[in-house]
Here is the input.
Amino acid sequence: MKRYFRIFPFLVLSACGSQQPADQATPDAPVAPARPLSEDDLMLRLASELEANVGTQSKVDQNIIVNYAMENFLDIQKTPSGLYYQILAEGQGNLLHLGDHLLVHYHGTFHNGVSFDSSYSRNKPIECYIGKMIPGWNEGLQLTRLGGKIRLFIPSELGYGTSGLKNGDKTIVPPNAVLVFEVEVLEML
Here is the structure.
């Protein structure tokens, strides 16, 4: 794998700037099993999403997420808002909707792998309403189903933005932080 990344920057430079739309299932439609991508196909698809001129925070965040996916060989999808995601477990039934009241387990890290919050570590899932969370969660949870598990790659503008998240004087999430959440939908309340 390391050998591959040593020669890959030449491909990245040639692919910068081109955009390829992400395939998305329509709401409540069954998800067709995806054909496994070869390593080359996945790397080329991800490389096409890298931005050569990163003049905005959203482009910086996009490059952080795409590079993370390339380093970890993750087949991620992108929504029009800039949220990236990976379905880890499909779940059952219809896709979740705005306003759904859920019980979920989650683990949140920064893109460098450092954990900042986890319901798993507390052994206590949380209750949430889709629509009352950060924008990345509100959108991402609507891409999964009851019993499903999703990995969300949240650019800062869909997370805690330029303010970050503080608890008193303690900074929990710094400004402009890209976040990675694994969220497991346990039940509908």
Remarks:
- The chain has one domain: 2-20+36-188.
- The chain has six helices and eleven strands.
- The longest helix spans residues 57-71.
- Residues 1-27 have pLDDT under 50 and may be disordered.
